[in-house]
Please model this.
Amino acid sequence: MEELENQFSKIASILGDKSRAIILWSLLDGRAYTATELAISANISRQSASNHLTKLTEVQLLTVEKQGRHRYYKLANAKVAHVIESMASLISLTKEYKKTNAPKLTDFTYFRTCYDHIAGSVGVKITNALLNHKIIEVSGKDYKVTNSGKKWFNSLGIDIDAIKQKKRSFAFQCLDWSERKHHIAGALGASILETMIEKDWIRKKANSRELTMTSTGKKELKNRLNIDV
Model:
């Protein structure tokens, strides 16, 4: 028990540093960055960023890959991303932020990525529509796809059986920090985002986690899920 407490304390202290928190937040777009790029993001020196990255890598919150002269850092896995995104929901518990007030609606809170899946107001809308149309169902803290849902996803070119074979969580409820509601994450959430990008329903904004919906995407979501975005 003492060893577990010590490990938890170590992780908590690492997450508590402002510069490391900014680095982790910057990596939520799912891409890999160099120490120099993350130093600029956190507004710290290259040497300081390297020290922070070493600590984050040691506790396996990040992974590093060497390519040529550069070393690229990214979040270790989707679980780390889920924890970082969910921690933002605690903002409402601070004295400076009243729980009854939702974050001001911006392009970022409206439509963005959370690691490798859709988040923000649009992410919650899509998830709720999938539930309302009985394409997915809540199962504990996860989601499961219904029989009719398999056919619906198949019409998009998403093979549910193939996704279930992946070595990661299939579909789980991810608390959206700006909406205070759940959106769909996991392998299924990632496949939804990937498929919509491939079909040009969604486009990523350069150097940002923000997403934009194309006219085709708006039309398809209206026809398939009866939602307006």
Notes: The CA atoms of residues 134 and 146 lie 7 Å apart. The domain at 2-76 is CATH 1.10.10.10 (Arc Repressor Mutant, subunit A). The mean pLDDT is 89. The radius of gyration is 19 Å.
